[in-house]
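In response to reviewer comment 3 from the previous cycle, which asked for concrete evidence that the modeling workflow produces usable outputs, we include below a single protein chain processed end to end. The sequence was submitted unchanged, and the resulting structure tokens are shown without manual editing.
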Amino acid sequence: MNLPFVAGGISDQEKIENDFEGYVSSMYKANGPVFACIDARMKVFSEGEFIFRDRKNKGNYFGGTGLGVLETPWPGGTTGELLARMEQDASLAGNSYWAMCDDSGRIGKAAAGKGLRLTRLRPDWITIVISSSDASNNDPFAADCKVIGYLYSTQLSGMAHSNGFGQANDILLLPDEVCHYSPIPDPVARFRGMSWLTPVLREVSADSKSTIHKESFLKNAAVPNMAIKFSPETSKDDFDEFVAKFKGSHQGAWNAYKTLFLLGGADVTPLSMDFRQLEFSQTVGKGESRIAAAAGVPPSWVGLSEGLQGSGLNQSMYAAARRRFADGTIRPLWRIAAASMQNIVITPNDQSQLWYDDSQVAFLREDQTDLAEINRIQANAIDSFIKSGFKPDAAVQAVLTRDLRVLTGQHTGLVSVQMQPPVDPNAPKAIAPPPANPGSGPNGN
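The workflow returned the following structure tokens.
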């Protein structure tokens, strides 16, 4: 719905902390390690799919018509593209916002007509509006604060409004009309997220400057900077002529390593060290590793220098890095994304929830030995439960859900021979009754 004009500024609001366009232009599009880390996260994250599961029986997964908008979020779009956009926004802005819309221009719950689809709300154009029971105080830090809306403000110039409120084209959406994905909470804000790039801004800046340094090194001679001293009798015209000829013969990477010839009276003094003396690769590699650590991406998976040497290339270390990336970074992101998207997706019933399906992700199926070992252990556990007298279906559910409470009340009453009371060998044996005479009857025949 359109927001009526509101006079004056409103302080009970939260917007993203960083300059979104600045992060995009100066880091994502201009820094190799940052792009590589976001791309690695995005490629694996986009392989996931959405599915429903039962809240009580968490091993019961199923589909439903509510998944249709996630499988085709917009005409020609896919779940992978949706997840890729969510990860891109979250990495660069700390937040990703989505809502339903239709061809009639209706947004949120009002969208129910032709062309129903998901629409991305650019994160730096969103203002989270919050309030408390005592709205007159206008205190965004009150203990009972809650989100009461998301204000979407745009301009044709592509810049957000300066005050964020009171514009005729602003759209105010209620909390249950917006998917707000923010995997890293901002510790100084109540409801917004934080980009993982924020803690490593200095490392990113240093890495960019290292690239500029390398470029300048190659451009200006590909040798250490130097000072050339002349005798006091050298005239200005001779000095200018020498400088011009020197630059033409020795500046630039194509002139590197040429023999330097000087006129009498000129003395060369190096002013800096070369790359080997500066330990350039180690300096750059440390910064790249800190960027990768903030992204939750092992350096070996994005081809960073420190990940391509030593034990990092061992098969066991490589597998451990993959498992750490999957279990420590990607799966938590999938879980948060599913919980966020459930806010605007229709679930089959109150007992079901939106979840993620990683069964078809090739990145997670590489170590088939571990998967086979897990299946073997689970099969042995099921067999043990059945031999102990539990119903087979209950035994399977207990193993899949890792919840032994499922076995309560599911015992057959049958136990193994080891559970039978011992037999006393001295006890008199029961004598079986004689078989009935088939020839006898009521008439004595």
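Confidence is low (pLDDT under 50) at residues 1-11, 156-166. We consider this sufficient to address the reviewer's concern, and the full set will be provided in the supplementary archive.
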